[in-house]
Write a structure and sequence with these properties.
208 residues, Glutathione S-transferase Yfyf (Class Pi), Chain A, domain 2, 2 domains, four-stranded mixed β-sheet, globular, binds glutathione
C-alpha cells in the first residue's frame, strides 16, 4: 500500500472532508496533514494550482478534489461500478463544487457589500443548486444518489449540507437546505445515521 498524505485546512469540513471520511471507512492509513490559513500562504506555492486539497501518493502530488475523492472512493467501495451510476455520482460531486465556486466570490467582502452578495448567493445560485441536488435524490428513487448504496456523492453532499447548517457563513440562513430542498435535508438526516459517518466523527471526538 502506498503512503498517502492528504493536505487541507484544519477544520472538519470543506473540500477534503469527504476524502478523509472515505479513507477512514476502510481504515486505510493516511496522513491527515492539516494546515492553518497562515501556513497556506507558503504551502500553496508548492502546489501546481496554488490550491488545496492535495494528495501525495508516495512522492507523487495529485490535485483536484473530485478526482481524488473518486479515487479514494474506488479503493473503499464507495464508488459506483455501473457506467450510468458513475455518471450520476460525478454529476452530484460537480454540482456541489459549483456551490464553492459561487460562494468563493463573496470571500473577502465586508459589511453591507458582503450582506448583499450573500443574499444574492443564497437566493440565486445556492437555492438553484440545492433544488437541483434535491431533484437528483428524487430521481434516484432511493435513499442514496446512486447505485442504491452509500457512495462518495452522498458523503460529499453530507459534508456540504452539514457545513451550511452549522452557521459558519454570515448571512446564509442555517435552515436554508430544509427550507428550499426538504428532500435533500431528509437525505442529510439519513446520512447522519450512516455508520461510516458516525464512526468517523466518533473517532474525531475521541482524538481531541
Ligand atoms: N479545483 C480545485 C479547487 C480547489 C480550491 O479552490 N481550494 C481552495 C480551498 S477550499 C483554495 O485552495 N483556494 C485558494 C484561493 O482561493 O486562493 C479542486 O477541486 O480541488
Amino acid at each position: 500500500m502506498p503512503n498517502y498524505k492528504l493536505t487541507y485546512f484544519d477544520f472538519d469540513g470543506g473540500r477534503a472532508e469527504a476524502i478523509r471520511i472515505a479513507f477512514h471507512s476502510q481504515n486505510i492509513k493516511f496522513e491527515d496533514h492539516r494546515i492553518s490559513f497562515a501556513q497556506f500562504a507558503q504551502f500553496r506555492k508548492t502546489t501546481p494550482f496554488n490550491s488545496i486539497p492535495v494528495l501525495n501518493i508516495d512522492s507523487i502530488l495529485v490535485t483536484q478534489t473530485n478526482p481524488i475523492l473518486s479515487y479514494v472512493g474506488k479503493m473503499t467501495k464507495l464508488y459506483p461500478t455501473d457506467d450510468l451510476q458513475i455518471l450520476y455520482c460525478e454529476e452530484v460531486m460537480s454540482a456541489i463544487e459549483d456551490i464553492s465556486h459561487q460562494l468563493v466570490k463573496t470571500f473577502g467582502l465586508k459589511d453591507d457589500v458582503l450582506k448583499q452578495a450573500r443574499k444574492k448567493f443564497v437566493e440565486g445560485w445556492l437555492s438553484t443548486i440545492l433544488k437541483g441536488l434535491e431533484s437528483l435524490i428524487i430521481r434516484s428513487k432511493g435513499d442514496y444518489f446512486c447505485e442504491n448504496q452509500l457512495t462518495v456523492a452522498d458523503l460529499k453532499c453530507f459534508v456540504q449540507v452539514n457545513g451550511l447548517s452549522k452557521g459558519f457563513l454570515d448571512h446564509v440562513p442555517t435552515d436554508i437546505v430544509e427550507t428550499v430542498a426538504p428532500q435533500l435535508f431528509a437525505h442529510f438526516n439519513r446520512m447522519k445515521k450512516e455508520p461510516i459517518i458516525q464512526e468517523y466523527y466518533k473517532m474525531r471526538e475521541n482524538s481531541k
